[in-house]
Design brief:
Number of domains: 2
CATH architecture of the largest domain: Alpha-Beta Complex
Helix content: 10-25%
CATH superfamily of the largest domain: Fumarylacetoacetase-like, C-terminal domain
CATH class of the largest domain: Alpha Beta
Order of helices and strands: EEEHHHEEEHEEEEEEEHEEEHEHEE
Number of strands: 19
Structural class: alpha+beta
Distance between the termini: 22 Å
């Protein structure tokens, strides 16, 4: 995690294991400080509690961090702390499908579809599916390979964490509703995509739960970087390695629909709440295109510029 070190007043938000159970924390200068103790608000002991009060929490955190140089607030070295998923129980996980131009071209080649039409020119809107909220897994966590799958795939994604209630927001103002960003891996059991013995013509053929919502299907972390530290989420490098072999190497500028457009689209259909996650799509380089899939013992690392590295081992 060394590439995520803080400079100046920059800090990260974590959920970590303590003797009192999981608690929200602030990482600053290689140390983890209890968030509720920093802000003086008991409701901030959980990340969801802080996100539901984000306007107040962010102001209090900024003030506390600026005074930490002379503060006696107890802290723990980051190297000694077990980090959990930064949002343990997100209220919803929205996942953008087919949202990188390089990945769209890649999938068109895999399925022999020829040149795929530009979704914008075709008049399409952003497209999302849901993952179950209890599928989140922490960095350095061991993730069981789902029983029966032989086609477990990786998908590096930038994840946005909502910090304000959002309904019918404009594209221009959409990023104001983001509390911060983290790295994620939209693990997918490709051989569970279709239900067996259901005709190809049937509208009931797809099995999104089995493909996308098994235990550990949403590795997340290692922390949340506050949105003000990343002024433009469309200007970030994104990479993924399997066993130190680079598989995905792209940039968030290749998204077809920007995060702001995704937030505006989703908020026109339902209210977004603090703690909701939006996984913004994956670039080219997935296992399906390579005919390579994850197996027990594989180590997967997702790196996103200005955020850091999320690492997991399959077991």
């Amino acid at each position: 995690m060394a590439e995520n070190e803080q400079s100046g007043s920059h800090y990260k938000l974590v959920t970590h294991e303590t003797a009192r159970g999981p608690r929200a924390g602030v990482v600053f200068n290689d140390s983890v400080f209890d968030l509720a103790e920093l802000t003086g608000k008991a409701s901030h002991e959980t990340m969801l509690g802080a996100l539901e009060d984000w306007a107040v929490a962010e102001t209090l955190i900024d003030k506390a961090v600026s005074n930490l140089g002379s503060s006696a607030t107890p802290s723990s070295p980051i190297a000694t702390v077990r980090l959990l998923a930064p949002v343990l129980y997100p209220s919803a996980i929205f996942c953008a499908g087919a949202n990188y131009s390089d990945h769209m071209s890649e999938m068109a080649r895999v399925f022999n579809l020829g040149a795929h039409p530009d979704p914008r020119k075709a008049g399409l809107a952003p497209w999302h599916f849901l993952k179950a909220s209890r599928t989140v897994a922490q960095t350095d966590g061991r993730i069981p390979v789902p029983a029966g799958t032989k086609m477990l795939d990786w998908e590096a994604e930038l994840a946005a964490v909502i910090g304000r209630v959002a309904k019918n927001v404009s594209v221009e103002g959409a990023l104001d509703y983001v509390a911060g960003y983290t790295a994620s891996n939209d693990l997918s059991a490709r051989d569970f995509t279709m239900r067996p013995n259901v005709p190809e013509s049937s509208p009931f053929r797809y099995d999104w739960i089995s493909q996308k919502s098994f235990d550990g299907a949403c590795p997340l972390g290692p922390w949340i970087v506050p949105a003000k530290q990343i002024p433009d989420p469309q200007r970030l490098g994104i990479k993924l390695w399997v066993n130190d072999l680079l598989k995905q190497d792209s940039h968030t500028s290749k998204m077809i629909f920007s995060l702001a457009e995704q937030i505006a689209h989703l908020s026109a259909r339902l209210t977004l709440h603090p703690g909701d996650l939006i996984l913004t799509g994956t670039p080219a380089g997935v296992g399906l295109a390579r005919k390579e899939f994850l197996k027990s013992g594989d180590v997967v690392r997702v790196w996103i510029e200005r955020i850091g590295t999320l690492s997991n081992t399959l077991v």
